[in-house]
Amino acid sequence: MSEPTKLRWGVLSTAKIGRKQVIPALQKSRLGEVTAIASRDLARAQQAADGLVIGRAYGSYEELLADPAVDAVYNPLPNHLHVPMSIAALEAGKHVLCEKPIALSAAEAEKLLAAGEAHPELKLMEAFMYRFHPQWERVFELIAAGTLGELREVRGWFSYFNDDPQNIRNQSDLGGGALMDIGCYPISMARFVLGREPVGVLARVERDPRFGTDRHAAAVLDFNGGAVATLSCGTQMAPGQGATIAGTAGVLRIEWPFTPPPEDSVRMWLDLDGATEEIVVGACDKYTAQADRFAEAVLNDQPVPTPLADAVANMRVIEAALRSGESGRRVAIG
Ligand SMILES: NC(=O)c1ccc[n+]([C@@H]2O[C@H](COP(=O)([O-])OP(=O)(O)OC[C@H]3O[C@@H](n4cnc5c(N)ncnc54)[C@H](OP(=O)(O)O)[C@@H]3O)[C@@H](O)[C@H]2O)c1
């Protein structure tokens, strides 16, 4: 059998997530290879290229976008550059996989959606990699089988400790803050699990006095029809994450909903009729799985697994939660 054609990736910046996780995962993927990396600084790009064995290094993002040997761009720039550089990549004829959160606001996300629609020949997706871990197939099987009954509540939380003023997460003008960086995960997860959009949000948001960014947020999302999501996120808390999906018949607890470790199996617990069943799902590198699903969409000209409209909808909820945190009132969505 002949080798499948591989998608040739170019990476915008020497971002830590790219160097440590996503580039090695792209290189491991069945349908992808990394041909180029760019940085604002050529020496930094060259050093990353040497370390990661990437053929071409560029001293500007624009040079990489002009490289005909790049089919698709991975954009792990700070949040304020997600939309402008993804639009620039589309205009240069490249497919785009862009990091979360997709934009600084819903209006800005809509601009990217429009740019994507203006280039129907190109694929565009937000990199919510957690969805590509096979544990979610198991979750959806249980939901579809009615094991949990009618879903009433989805709970999710995500935290870490980082008070470095230089970090992009602690800079307002770069799109920092807990809701933007990690609150986006439980919001996305609740929408994914419930399969519809919330109609309102009530949030409590606490800001760091030095950075002005939200360092802790807790929110209730109203999904109408009897279901709610409760979530919290913190950037100055001990690291942790978890999710619980509670229905009229059963409760499912998920140990690693957002960043399941690539090398280990992960666990979920199903509480049903007074007994607890442990469910184990085998190890999977979610970044590699995401890379292959994206490449399949490009190489077979199929829709991407997560349409950009999903990213716009997620951004609407993040924005509404931030507004609710300002006013202390429920904010309607939609
Ligand atoms: N999906 C995930 O698992 C995951 C995990 C972590 C982060 N992320 C997302 O990935 C993105 C990058 O996160 P990160 O932690 O990897 O960031 P990071 O290490 O700070 O990297 C950001 C890169 O952007 C470039 N850059 C361009 N303009 C910049 C500016 N004004 N200030 C700082 N850097 C600038 C820099 O690269 P050059 O100097 O080389 O140009 C820098 O290395 C964020 O959007 C974040 O939300 C996703």
TrEMBL record:
Oxidoreductase is among the record's keywords: yes
Gene3D superfamilies assigned to the protein according to its UniProt record, in alphabetical order: Dihydrodipicolinate Reductase, domain 2, NAD(P)-binding Rossmann-like Domain
Domain named GFO/IDH/MocA-like oxidoreductase: residues: 137-252
Record has Cytoplasm as a keyword: no
Pfam families reported in the protein's UniProt record: GFO_IDH_MocA, GFO_IDH_MocA_C3
Keyword set, alphabetical order: Oxidoreductase
Matches recorded under InterPro entries: Gfo/Idh/MocA-like_OxRdtase_N, Gfo/Idh/MocA_domain, GFO_IDH_MocA-like_dom, NAD(P)-bd_dom_sf
Single annotated GO MF: glucose-fructose oxidoreductase activity
Entry EC no(s): 1.1.99.28
Domain Gfo/Idh/MocA-like oxidoreductase N-terminal residue range list: 8-118
The family this protein is said to belong to: Belongs to the Gfo/Idh/MocA family.
PANTHER family listed in its UniProt record: OXIDOREDUCTASES (PTHR22604), TRANS-1,2-DIHYDROBENZENE-1,2-DIOL DEHYDROGENASE (PTHR22604:SF105)
Protein name per its UniProtKB record: Glucose--fructose oxidoreductase
Source organism (scientific name): Pseudobythopirellula maris
